[in-house]
């Protein structure tokens, strides 16, 4: 059976032009094998090893989501929002839960292979969209890994300077970074060394990296819980009044900021090929890790805003400052240890996810086959892992990547939106064309138009909100999105899926898309430019390399579960 299928709209003439060939290739999609098929990737030298239990997956998601930010972001946002920052974290967490439900369904339907959002887009849409999703995600991952490595190096040096004879005797270029040259170049010695060490651990095997992640994540969570327990006895409830001193609008704005504190739960979806029981454990790992993170963030927020008036919060270390003001200096030491553990796990999981994404594209031929190779004894994508480590090391060692932080999160929001759309499209039953305004249009095309309408409305609403436009424009955008969602609900036929099933399809995924694109509109305008420029570059790379090397006879056979075709 062929592992590729052409979109119905991608037919080309017998002597196609270059453009028609490009279009035909771009619209290729990975088909779902019939449910009756039981072909699965053989546990050969090219396969990964299933070693991750549900507990490992939970720790993987927590390790990716909670870094040093829990000790910093909570206080900085509370300074602007007040005690209502707790509600901000709940709203943002609830939004992420909706996205997690979408990820959980697809992780359950695609339990046999790595790829995450890239794989889902490849199956639900086409080759070019999948490649675009990969590129947007990967730029976030590369810059994010370098930025986290520099932060980790800085925290390590700060901890070492607690030793008297090292205090003020370590040159800044060792860990904090040298002075900037031309506004971008800044040498850092320790960050690449840390990246090399973590890359070696990841190359040795998923077992070794899982042990390191488990130890660091448990350490981090225990410290956070200890901080919450100690802080409870220092809470003055009068500090919680007024709860939202600047109104609900500031709480909502705070939610758009702290949304990104939860980013990372999707890392669990990329461990599909290494999970012992992927269909059962992946959904539980995704949703469970996110719920634990929400509880930890809310607990820290309540304690922090109860210990000190919100106006006195802020600075570089608000949580440490709060405990120091209460005479609990030893807690500051624990916070530093927790920050180091948090950054280590976030960096480790980020490097892990990147290599698995490269592995998926290498197998599919969209990148050189070198990236698709798995070590025969270690059962890890060593080449992909080394490449990821090299890129992060160069960026972290030579550049002040913190200045690029305002263009991050584009890939994350893009990936979340595409995953939500995949849940909707993969649930559609095959139907004949229908009549819309007297013209024949396929059911799939009509559904895609509705999804695009929701995307446009979400962006428009975000722009209106960001620039303070009249409230009526925001309402109009929301109403149009509601009509589009209603059309998706009433004019399409959906089926339930085996395994975990996202509730409320298509409404819930549509809400996810709207919220994600709304948040996208809140990003710095340079992030919008980055999205457009990178998309153009990606299409160029695909046109030159990807379309010619994508492997239409790949022997990567996987169990895919598809909704049954509608009976005639």
UniProtKB/TrEMBL annotation:
Gene3D superfamilies: Amino acid/polyamine transporter I. Keywords: Membrane, Transmembrane, Transmembrane helix. The chain crosses the membrane at residues 57-78, 84-106, 118-139, 181-203, 215-233, 253-272, 284-310, 330-353, 386-404, 448-465, 471-488, 500-521, 527-545. One of its GO terms (cellular component) is membrane. It is a multi-pass membrane protein. It comes from the Eukaryota. It is found in: Membrane. InterPro entries: AA/rel_permease1, CAT_C. One of its GO terms (molecular function) is amino acid transmembrane transporter activity. PANTHER family: CATIONIC AMINO ACID TRANSPORTER 9, CHLOROPLASTIC, INNER MEMBRANE TRANSPORTER YGJI-RELATED. Belongs to the amino acid-polyamine-organocation (APC) superfamily. Cationic amino acid transporter (CAT) (TC 2.A.3.3) family. This is Cationic amino acid transporter C-terminal domain-containing protein. It comes from Solanum pinnatisectum (tansyleaf nightshade).
């Amino acid at each position: 059976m062929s592992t590729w299928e052409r979109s119905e709209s991608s037919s080309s003439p017998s002597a196609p032009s270059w453009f028609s060939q490009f279009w035909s290739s771009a619209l290729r999609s990975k088909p779902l094998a019939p449910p009756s098929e039981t072909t699965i990737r053989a546990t050969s030298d090219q396969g990964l090893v299933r070693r991750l239990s549900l507990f490992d997956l939970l720790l993987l998601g927590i390790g990716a989501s909670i870094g040093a930010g829990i000790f910093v972001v909570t206080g900085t946002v509370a300074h602007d929002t007040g005690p209502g920052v707790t509600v901000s974290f709940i709203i943002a967490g609830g939004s992420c839960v909706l996205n997690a439900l979408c990820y959980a369904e697809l992780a359950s339907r695609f339990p046999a292979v790595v790829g995450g959002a890239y794989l889902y887009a490849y199956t639900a849409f086409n080759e070019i969209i999948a490649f675009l999703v990969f590129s947007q995600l990967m730029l976030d991952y590369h810059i994010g890994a370098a930025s986290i490595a520099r932060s980790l190096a800085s925290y390590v040096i700060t901890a070492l300077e607690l030793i008297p004879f090292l205090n003020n005797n370590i040159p800044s270029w060792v860990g904090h970074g040298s002075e900037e040259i031309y506004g971008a170049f800044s040498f850092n010695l320790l960050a690449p060394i840390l990246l090399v060490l973590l890359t070696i651990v990841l190359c040795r095997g998923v077992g070794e990296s899982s042990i390191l992640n488990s130890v660091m994540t448990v350490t981090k969570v225990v410290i956070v819980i200890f901080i919450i327990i100690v802080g409870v006895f220092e809470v003055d409830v009068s500090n919680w009044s007024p709860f939202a001193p600047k109104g609900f609008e500031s709480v909502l704005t705070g939610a758009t900021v702290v949304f990104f504190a939860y980013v990372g739960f999707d890392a669990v979806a990329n461990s599909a090929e290494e999970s012992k029981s992927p269909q059962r454990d992946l959904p539980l790992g995704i949703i469970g890790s996110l719920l634990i993170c929400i509880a930890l963030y809310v607990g820290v927020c309540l304690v922090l805003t109860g210990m000190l008036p919100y106006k006195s919060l802020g600075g570089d270390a608000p949580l440490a400052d709060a405990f120091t003001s209460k005479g609990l200096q030893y807690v500051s030491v624990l916070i530093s240890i927790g920050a180091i553990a948090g950054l280590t796990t976030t960096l480790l999981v980020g490097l892990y996810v990147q290599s698995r994404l490269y592995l998926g594209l290498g197998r599919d031929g969209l990148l050189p086959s070198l990236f698709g190779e798995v070590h025969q004894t270690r059962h890890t994508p060593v080449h992909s892992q080394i490449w990821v480590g090299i890129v992060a090391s160069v960026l972290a060692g030579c550049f002040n990547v913190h200045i690029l932080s305002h263009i991050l999160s584009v890939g994350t929001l893009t990936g979340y939106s595409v995953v939500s759309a995949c849940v909707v499209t993969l649930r559609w039953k095959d139907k004949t064309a229908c009549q819309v305004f007297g013209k024949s249009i396929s059911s799939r095309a009509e559904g895609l138009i509705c999804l695009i309408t929701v995307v446009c409305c979400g962006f428009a609403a975000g722009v209106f909100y960001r620039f303070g436009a009249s409230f009526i424009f925001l309402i109009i955008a929301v109403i149009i999105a509601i009509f589009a969602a209603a059309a998706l609900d009433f004019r399409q036929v959906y089926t339930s899926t085996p395994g975990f099933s996202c509730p409320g399809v298509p409404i819930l995924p549509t809400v996810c898309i709207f919220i994600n694109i709304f948040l996208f509109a809140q990003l710095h305008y340079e992030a919008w430019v980055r999205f457009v420029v990178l998309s153009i570059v990606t299409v160029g790379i695909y046109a030159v390399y990807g379309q010619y090397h994508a492997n239409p006879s790949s022997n990567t056979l996987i169990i895919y579960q598809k909704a049954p075709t509608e009976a005639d």
